[in-house]
Design a protein that fits this description.
Elements: E1 4-12, E2 15-17, E3 25-27, H1 31-43, E4 46-50, E5 61-63, E6 66-70, H2 75-94, H3 105-125, E7 126-135, H4 142-149, E8 154-158, H5 166-169, H6 175-182, E9 187-190, H7 193-207, E10 211-212, E11 215-219, E12 225-232, H8 239-247, H9 249-261, E13 267-274, H10 281-294, E14 302-309, H11 316-336, E15 344-347, H12 353-362, E16 365-368, H13 377-385, E17 392-396, E18 409-411, H14 416-428, H15 431-447, H16 450-468
Parallel strand pairs: 1-4, 1-7, 4-6, 7-8, 8-9, 9-12, 13-14, 13-16, 14-15, 16-17, 17-18
Antiparallel strand pairs: 2-3, 5-6, 10-11, 11-12
Helix pairs in contact: 1-16, 2-3, 3-4, 8-13, 9-12, 10-11, 10-14
The site of GDP-alpha-D-glucose (GDG) has 20 residues, from strand 13, strand 14, helix 12 and helix 13.
């Protein structure tokens, strides 16, 4: 087995099966994959993850300069470890119990077993003294398991979703094991300063370890201690690729075509989300529906386009959410549509990136009303696409992106009256104010792209290595 100096461990490999292309695999879309591709290529890195098909793990293979190591998952493990513990226990708990988390011991058992399998796979492909970077909440136990197998490694972990306040976190029957699992890492990265703070507080309350600034003093089995760093590293997007797409003539033409096909409304409002209860889609629809009802907005002048890409369709809470949203959309449309104009153009579909960027260009107002969100990349993508310095971003204070994107129109999505006023303000905002706000937003997103994010994290890991060696 070839050994790599840098190994990424994530639930999914960075490729999707596609029999129509040579080799049978294509790179999956997504910022993480784009960000790590140059780093991995340069380091001759390896990536450990599930290949996407149950009960089928191909042998390790090379793809675009990266060695890919598939981890097998059975159908039952996908149900218990992924849909169960990851997406029906941790996901709702870490998003402030917007939906009720379910605590099931068989799910936990599967989570432990699968995390061990990932840790063992990473241990077997990492070179002596190498670096492993573990991604996200599906693999919180991997850092500790890996450290036990390979004490010579430098281990990083990045948490893409929020880390909740201790009062909520403490519901977790396995709260101690999860903290210990994460603390196996030398650097534990979070989206927001507040997430890192919640984590440090949970460690103090639950494990009684000392914390100093961003450092956590972790006692080892041999009586010594080491310092793990828990700190914010806000993730970003491949900004330039959005700027480039937005400048393409065909994408710009498509934006005009979209507007025309909606009946040339004065204002287009846009929401783009995975269909997930954390995204605040219902709150957005409620505010918009009331504005039409109150007569503050008219269906002849505005249209809301809501892309809700299909997600986690085997988890009960998502099935129910879809029903609720679709009922609400059809009620609003039934009440408000005219022959020529629709209130909401609802699309339960995924689209190519070109179409997304065309939508961003067509949208006068972008609605990000998440009730809780680690970062929210859609907010940054909209900003990156608007090189014309037009358009208004409405951004929930509960999305991580709110920490950086200070000149967006900030909103508490639970406050429906405030949300309504903010939508009206966005619809009426003069071009000069749009430009002033958008320019400041764009500076942030252009200066802090995903390549910088991965460099900052890997630099912190490198410093952790020199501290301990
Ligand atoms: C998690 C955290 C954190 C969506 N529909 C389509 C499509 N998308 C793309 C968006 C964006 C991505 O998917 C979604 O990223 P978000 O950040 O908005 O949200 P999550 O999926 O919940 O991601 C989140 C993120 O991890 C990274 O750390 O920011 O807080 O929850 O890029 O554009 N892309 C295409 N077609 C679609 O239909 N092409």
């Amino acid at each position: 087995m070839p050994q790599a100096e840098l190994v990424v461990v994530a639930n999914r490999l960075p490729v999707d099966r596609d029999d129509s292309v040579e080799g049978g695999w294509r790179r999956s879309p997504g910022g993480l994959v784009t960000a790590l591709e140059p780093v991995m290529r340069q380091a001759g890195g390896a990536w450990v993850g599930w290949a996407g098909q149950a009960d089928h793990a191909p042998d390790p293979f090379d793809f675009d300069g990266t060695h890919l190591v598939p981890v097998p998952l059975s159908d039952e493990e996908i149900e218990l470890y992924y849909e169960g513990f990851s997406n029906d226990t941790i996901w709702p708990l870490y998003h402030d119990v917007i939906a009720a988390p379910r605590y099931r011991r068989v799910w936990w058992d599967a989570y432990v077993k699968v995390n061990r399998r990932f840790a063992e796979a990473a241990a077997s492909v990492t070179a002596d003294g190498g670096t492993v970077w573990v991604q996200d909440y599906q693999l919180q136990l991997v850092p500790r398991m890996l450290r036990e197998l390979r004490p010579d490694l430098t281990i990083g972990y990045f948490h893409h979703i929020p880390f909740p306040a201790y009062g909520l976190y403490s519901q977790l029957p396995w709260r101690r094991q999860v903290l210990e699992g994460l603390l196996g890492a030398d650097v534990i990265g979070f989206q927001r300063v507040a997430d890192a703070g919640n984590f440090a507080r949970a460690v103090r309350r639950q494990l009684r370890y000392d914390t100093r600034a961003s450092g956590i003093v972790v006692p080892e089995a041999d009586g010594t201690t080491r310092v793990a760093l828990a700190k914010a590293f806000p993730i970003s997007i491949d900004t330039q690729s959005y700027v480039d797409l937005a400048q393409r003539a065909d994408v710009q033409a498509r934006a005009i075509e979209i507007r025309k096909s909606l009946g040339d409304p004065e204002r287009i409002l846009l929401g783009v989300d995975r269909l997930d209860y954390t995204k605040g889609i219902r709150h957005r629809l409620k505010a918009y529906g009331e504005l039409l009802e109150d007569g503050r907005l008219r269906v002849e002048d505005v249209t809301l386009v809501q892309v809700a890409s299909p997600s986690r369709e085997r988890v009960a809470a998502y099935v129910q959410l879809r029903d609720e949203i679709e009922l609400t959309v059809s009620r609003i449309n039934g009440d408000r549509d005219t022959m020529g104009h629709t209130a909401i153009r609802y699309l339960h579909q995924g689209y190519p990136r070109e179409e997304m960027v065309a939508l961003f260009l067509a949208a006068d107002v972008m609605l990000v009303t998440a009730l809780r969100d680690g970062m929210n990349l859609v907010a940054k993508e909209y900003v990156a696409a608007r090189a014309d310095n037009r358009g208004v971003l409405i951004l929930s204070e509960f999305a991580g992106a709110a920490d950086e994107l200070g000149t967006a129109l900030r909103v508490n999505p639970h406050d429906i009256d405030a949300l309504k006023d903010t939508i009206v303000r966005a619809v009426e905002m003069p071009a000069a104010e749009q430009g002033r706000r958008m320019r400041a937003l764009r500076r942030k997103v252009l200066d802090n792209d995903v390549a910088k994010w991965s460099q900052d994290f890997l630099l912190a890991l490198d410093q952790a290595r020199t501290r301990t060696s």
